[in-house]
Structure formats: structure tokens, C-alpha cells
Design goal:
Chain B: Belongs to the ABC-4 integral membrane protein family. The complex is a heterodimer of chains A (238) and B (401). Chain A is 33% helix and 26% strand. Chain A contains seven helices and ten strands. In chain A, the strands form two sheets. A six-stranded mixed beta sheet of chain A has the order 6-7-8-3-9-10, with helices on both faces. In chain A, strands 2-1-4-5 form a four-stranded antiparallel beta sheet, covered by helices on one side. Chain B has 401 residues and is of the alpha+beta class. The chains are: A alpha/beta (238), B alpha+beta (401). The complex binds adenosine-5'-triphosphate (ATP) and magnesium ion.
């Protein structure tokens, strides 16, 4: 399904976004004016060579970081004008994150990890349990709820991380190389899970990947080069 | 939000039980040390005060010589005479009771049991001065005192060792080779700072003078001051009177001394109070060191848990929540340490107090202050690491290895 400009305005809109790391002579311009629109419900794969600014862009899209220049409109909010805490509240309400390194809390059960975002939302114990178990069920790990990360395989850990990201029913799921640490079989399972969440839960998925096999699950593929969007093409799944 | 952070704090502590325990060890030891020291110190002060008050409240002790003992060389200062006693009774205002004392040591015998003890020769006024009570039997009758009859009142130690369960009142025993009739037993006074106060035989002074000391001298005069009068004023006029009676010229030193038991009491309790404060202060320093220990571990913990902080921030925790989490964690740790410390102090004080022969006095104020202090340490030393955690950038924190 190609984005329909008449049907909806984009959920994400970058205009002339730049990012400069450091100051003075060591300053490095990682983004050199990125323009990008992403429609609600899209499944976007971001590709490009190492150092081309994919993660930098994802961090900005995920409201973890602010652009040095340009504008970023997320659900009608001018993110570049927001402070730390305001961006934290946007993340809490609308965004879920999956990282290459899983990033689960160690010595903490799968359920407690998944419940964590609900805790910050101030949900009560009963609701936390129900939503946490529902999210674990969605990623197929209901029976593993009391296992700590050390007792789970990499694929399972990443699925717990996905459960944690979707437990708050976010609008957008940001995943920076979610299959980077997994073998191809586990990677395909994760991609199928993301596809399912995108199709059946209506979550917009933004994913960085180096592997064309994984990008093949996306509807839109964005290519980065040297801190700029090089091209945007419709994916195989579109 | 506070509820959330408290849950998170307890989870984090629970996840690292050993480290949490080691972190609080400083606080535990500090609080336990402070509270134990102060509790025992207060007990010691109370014990000293108790012992002194057993000497009788507001009692002046008049003795020949300067200070305790009779000094080294030189002529022995004269003892007092009965007319000194009468003079004090009649000429001094503010006196409740006056009792003469002569002392002699010797062996008491009853049915083959021997017991060596101290004989006090005095009058019935002694019981008023020292607030001694007779538990069994009676005090001396005035005709017994007048005539210097061979009657005695014995202390409990003498009763136990000599009579061994038999009823002593009405029995005759021998003291220093003289037969005497037991008319009473003193109420137990206990182990004082001045030896066993129950190891005594009290007899009419005239009898002791006649049969044991051989003269009519009085070695000590106890003067009980009326509560309505100021002890130091009475002491001054007593000294004045005695200088006059003993014909001491101006500028010449006294050949007698007057002890104010209350003054001794104040001095001794003052000393124990200062000791308590010093020991308490040393212990408080260890509490401070414990606080620095918490800060140290919390700082390490912030570094070690950088990635965790990154995860929390990415998930949508605002800076304040991360700050609160670490702050609450430090406070919970230090409060737990404080509680454990108080508990240990309680056990230690209860166990040690009897060994030191001091009473165990639970002081709510000391316990409350120590607990609040440990909580305050959590706030003070937890704040810096917590602020550092909250200031982390989520991206950098997530990337942290
Ligand atoms: N915090 C930072 N400070 C300084 N330079 C940075 C920082 N983060 C990224 N860079 C630089 O910015 C450029 C883009 O980095 P980015 O992480 O976005 O690349 P990427 O496309 O995600 O690469 P990869 O595929 O290797 O993950 C790189 O040259 C990198 O060295
Ligand atoms: Mg990257």
C-alpha cells in the first residue's frame, strides 16, 4: 500500500534536518539536511553504509535526540523545540524501542521487564500484569514470563524487548538493527513478528537493517548515504 | 510516582542483596555503635547517680583531716567530740538530722559461722540521715542508745553469711568477742560504688566507743540538710562553725573537711556524661564514614547501571523519576541500615549492660535521632549520585558497555 497523501498527513516529517556532533575543529556533521515523510501504518526499512547517519536519524525520530538544525514534526509536535522531559513524555506515550543489544534489565524477569514502561505510566499492579502478559503472549513467550534475560536465548530476549516496546500500544516502533545479533532463522521470526504487529496492531515500524533479506519485509525502503537520504523505494512487501 | 520509585528501589535492592547489605554495613555499624554507646553511657550515668543517691540526698559528711584519708605525716587532726555534735544540732540552721559515726572492723560469729565485717557505731538519727530502712525488727530504742547496750542491726550480707536462712532477729551473736543481740535487719541497699553497703553491723555509738574504740571520739559526723535550705549555704556555716570550735586562725588551713554528696554526685555524673558524649561523637564519625560508603557504592552503582538508566530514559522516564529512583534507593538503604543498626544496638545493650553492671535504659530520643540521622545520610549522600544518574544522556547511556 503506497502512502496516500490525500488520506492522511504523515505521522513523521523531517525537513532539512542536520546533526552536528562535537564542536569546533573536531565537529562532525552526521546529517546534512534530511527530508523524510513517514505515513502512519508504514513499515520502513532504513539501509545504507556504516556511518551514513542511520542511527543518528533513528535517535532523532525516536525523540531520544534533537536535530542541530531543521524541523521535526511528530504527531503535530515540533520536537526540536521540546526539552528533555517533554520528549521523554512523548516517548512514553507514543514510542517503543527495540535495540540491537536487546537492552533488557538483567536479573529481572521477562514480565518485570515488559511491565517497566507501564510502571512509568503509573498503571496499577493488576493492569500491569494483564497488559504485560498480553504483550508476552503476542511475542509467544507467555510461558517464559518468570525467566531472567540470562535464562533466555538471544531471539527470546529480543522478543521480550519487542513485548516491552509494544506493551504500551505505541504508535511507532523504532528498531535499530533488531536482528543484528541474531542468526537468520531467529531474524526471520523477529521480522515476521514485526510484520504481524504492523499489519494487525497498526503500529508504524521504523527499522534499520543491513540485510536485504530483512528489508524485504518492509513496505518502504529508505537508503542513506553520507548523512543524506539517497533514495526511497517501495519494498517487496508493499 | 513516589509509589513507583519505591517499588523500583526495593526491586533494585533485592536484585543486589549482597551489595546492598555491604553498602549499608557502614550505616548498620555506625548506628549500632552510636546507640549502644549512648545507651550504655546513659545507663552508667544512671548507675552512678543511683549509687550516690544511696549515700543519702543532700548529706554533708564532716571528717577530720583534709580530703579523703588523713594525709601523710604531721600530727593527726583530732576527731570530733560529742559537744561538736550538740553544737551542730543547736547552732546550725537548716539541719534536718545529725548522726555521729565511728567505725571498726571485726569478725562476727554465730553458731560456728564467721564473717568479717564493718561495725558502725551511730545513733538512730543515722537511719534518717542515710534514709536506711529496717526490713525486719526495729531500730534502737532510746534507752538502748543512752545506755550503750549491746544490740545490733545487721545488713543483708551479714545475715546471709552468718545466719544462712535462720531468722536473725532476737538471736544473739558475737561481734569482736562481745555478745550482742540482733534487733533488726536493714533493707537491702545493693552494691554501691563504695563497696557492699549491706556488709555492715550497726550498733549504738556508745557501745562501740566503750568496747571497741576505747575513747569517746567521733570519727565522722553526717549532717542531713533540710530540703528547704541550700546545701552550700549550710556547708559554709558548718565550716565556719567548725573553724571556730577547732580554733583555726584566719589564713590557717582547715583540719577537717566537709563533703557534699550531691557535689560528688554531680561531678561523677558529669564525668560519665562527658565520656558518653565523647564515645558517642567517635561513633557518630563512624556513622558519617558509613554515609560516605553509601555515596561511594551509589556512585559505582550509577556507573555500573548506566545502561539500565539509558533503558529507563528511552522507555520514557523523565529525569526527575530517575533521580528519585536513585535517591529513594539510597534512602531506603540507609533507613534499612538504620533499623538493623537500632536492632543490633538493642541486642548489644541488653547483653552488655548486665556485664557492666549498669541498668539498660531504652532511650526513645536517642533511637529516633539515630534513625533520622541515617535517613538524612541517605538523602545527603544519595543526592549527588542520583543527580548524576538523572543527568545522563539516554543515547550515551544506552551505548555504555
Ligand atoms: N555521539 C557521537 N559523537 C560523535 N560522532 C558521532 C556520534 N554518534 C555518531 N557519530 C558519527 O556520526 C556518523 C553517523 O553515525 P551513525 O551512528 O548514525 O551511523 P550508522 O549509519 O548508524 O552506522 P552503522 O551502520 O555503523 O550503525 C558516524 O561517522 C559516527 O562516527
Ligand atoms: Mg547504527
Amino acid at each position: 500500500m503506497a502512502p496516500d497523501p490525500i488520506m492522511s498527513s504523515p505521522i513523521i516529517s523531517l525537513r532539512g534536518v542536520t546533526k552536528v556532533y562535537g564542536e569546533g575543529p573536531t565537529a562532525f556533521q552526521a546529517l546534512k539536511g534530511v527530508d523524510l515523510d513517514i505515513q502512519q501504518g508504514d513499515f520502513v526499512a532504513v539501509m545504507g553504509p556504516s556511518g551514513s547517519g542511520k542511527s543518528t536519524t533513528m535517535n532523532i525520530l525516536g525523540c531520544l535526540d534533537v536535530p542541530s538544525g531543521g524541523t521535526y514534526l511528530f504527531k503535530g509536535h515540533h520536537v526540536e523545540t521540546l526539552d528533555r522531559d517533554q520528549r521523554a513524555l512523548l516517548r512514553r506515550r507514543y514510542l517503543g524501542f527495540v535495540f540491537q543489544g536487546f537492552n533488557l534489565l538483567s536479573r529481572t524477569t521477562a514480565l518485570e521487564n515488559v511491565e517497566l514502561p507501564l510502571l512509568y505510566r503509573g498503571e496499577d499492579k493488576k493492569l500491569r500484569y494483564e497488559m504485560g502478559m498480553a504483550a508476552l503472549d503476542k511475542v509467544g513467550l507467555k510461558d517464559w514470563w518468570d525467566h531472567t534475560p540470562a535464562e533466555l536465548s538471544g531471539g527470546q530476549q529480543q522478543r521480550v524487548a519487542i513485548a516491552r516496546a509494544i506493551v504500551t500500544q505505541p504508535d511507532v516502533l523504532v528498531a535499530d538493527e533488531p536482528t543484528g545479533n541474531l542468526d537468520s532463522q531467529r531474524s526471520i521470526e523477529i521480522m515476521e513478528l514485526l510484520t504481524d504487529l504492523n499489519k494487525n496492531s497498526g503500529i508504524t515500524v521504523l527499522m534499520v537493517t543491513h540485510e536485504p533479506d530483512m528489508a524485504a519485509f518492509a513496505r518502504t525502503i529508505v537508503h542513506f548515504r553520507d548523512g543524506l537520504v539517497e533514495s526511497i523505494e517501495a519494498g517487496v512487501a508493499a | 510516582m513516589l509509589g513507583t520509585t519505591v517499588i523500583l528501589a526495593f526491586r533494585a535492592i533485592n536484585r543486589h542483596k549482597l551489595r546492598s547489605f555491604l553498602t549499608t554495613l557502614g550505616i548498620i555499624i555506625g548506628v549500632a555503635a552510636v546507640v549502644t554507646m549512648v545507651t550504655l553511657g546513659n545507663g552508667a550515668t544512671a548507675a552512678v547517680r543511683e549509687q550516690i543517691s544511696s549515700l543519702g540526698a543532700n548529706v554533708l559528711q564532716l571528717r577530720p583531716g583534709q580530703g579523703f584519708g588523713r594525709g601523710g605525716g604531721g600530727p593527726r587532726p583530732p576527731d570530733f567530740k560529742e559537744r561538736d555534735l550538740t553544737a551542730i544540732e543547736n547552732q546550725l540552721t537548716g539541719v534536718r538530722a545529725v548522726a555521729p559515726v565511728v567505725q571498726s572492723s571485726g569478725t562476727a560469729i554465730y553458731e560456728g559461722n564467721n564473717w568479717s565485717t564493718t561495725v558502725y557505731g551511730t545513733t538512730s538519727a543515722y537511719s534518717e540521715v542515710q534514709s536506711w530502712k529496717v526490713a525486719d525488727g526495729r531500730l534502737f530504742l532510746s534507752e538502748e542508745e543512752e545506755a550503750g547496750k549491746s544490740v545490733c542491726i545487721i545488713g543483708n550480707t551479714v545475715r546471709t553469711n552468718l545466719f544462712q536462712g535462720a531468722e536473725p532477729v532476737g538471736q544473739r551473736m558475737r561481734i569482736k568477742g562481745v555478745s550482742c543481740q540482733v534487733v533488726g535487719v536493714l533493707a537491702t541497699r545493693g552494691q554501691g560504688g563504695f563497696g557492699d553497703q549491706d556488709d555492715v553491723v550497726v550498733m549504738p555509738i556508745k557501745f562501740v566507743q566503750r568496747r571497741f574504740t576505747g575513747d569517746r571520739d567521733i570519727s565522722q559526723i553526717m549532717v542531713a540538710v533540710d530540703d528547704a535550705y541550700d546545701t552550700s549555704t549550710v556547708q559554709a556555716s558548718l565550716e565556719e562553725l567548725m573553724r571556730e570550735r577547732r580554733k583555726i586562725k584566719d589564713g590557717q588551713e582547715d583540719n577537717f573537711n566537709v563533703f557534699d554528696t550531691k557535689q560528688i554526685s554531680d561531678t561523677l555524673t558529669g564525668t560519665t556524661t562527658i565520656l558518653t558524649q565523647i564515645v558517642g561523637a567517635v561513633a557518630a564519625i563512624s556513622l558519617l564514614v558509613g554515609g560516605i560508603g553509601i555515596m561511594n557504592i551509589m556512585l559505582v552503582s550509577v556507573t555500573e547501571r548506566t545502561r539500565e538508566i539509558g533503558i529507563r530514559l528511552a522507555i520514557g522516564a523523565v529525569a526527575r523519576e530517575v533521580l528519585m529512583q536513585f535517591l529513594v534507593e539510597a534512602i531506603v538503604l540507609s533507613c534499612l541500615g538504620g533499623l538493623i543498626g537500632l536492632f543490633l544496638a538493642l541486642i548489644a545493650s541488653v547483653a552488655i549492660a548486665p556485664l557492666m553492671q549498669v541498668p539498660f535504659l531504652f532511650d526513645v530520643k536517642v533511637n529516633a535521632i539515630a534513625f533520622l540521622f541515617s535517613a538524612a545520610i541517605g538523602v545527603v549522600f544519595g543526592y549527588f549520585p542520583a543527580r548524576r544518574a538523572a543527568a545522563l544522556n539516554p543515547i550515551d547511556a544506552l551505548r555504555h558497555e
